[in-house]
Amino acid sequence: MKPLPLTVRLAAGLAVTAVEQARKLPRQLAGLPVTVVSEALQLSMRVQQRVTELAIKGDDALSVLRPAEQQPEWATFDEDEPEVGPPTADDPWAEEEQALAAEPPAVLPNYDELSLAQLRARLRTLSAEDLEELLAHERTHAARPEFTGMLTRRIANLKQQ
């Protein structure tokens, strides 16, 4: 048997390929929106990266014309800040040891372990004298602003009543 001409074989191959692709089309159409969105996001990311690269190159080129400040006016460092409170003793651990050695307040023995919410829940059951004791303890130990503020406000409310 003599082989068919090349053009006939090519036409038959194209027809079979077209039928195969037509059968795949419903599955491909279902994934098409995801593919389009994914391609759009990838393109967007590439554009953003290219813009960022160009901005960095521009910054490098322009830095020759405008040198950076040695220390910007908004920058602050620990050594620039004034010391708060009394200066520490020669032993840097002395304050911590003093806090650990101190007795907890008698009115709430577990006071140092309480969270702010736990302390707030117990405030109404304490007298002004008890609150003063807790406030003194807080000021000499942790001195947490939110705790001292809450205790001070509660004492002031009790004195107004």
Automatic annotation (TrEMBL):
Q: Where is the DUF8129 domain?
A: 112-159
InterPro entries reported in the protein's UniProt record: DUF8129, LipDrop-assoc
Region Disordered: list its residue ranges.
70-91
Highest taxon of source: Bacteria
Would you tell me the protein name for this molecule? DUF8129 domain-containing protein
| Source organism of this protein record | Saccharothrix saharensis
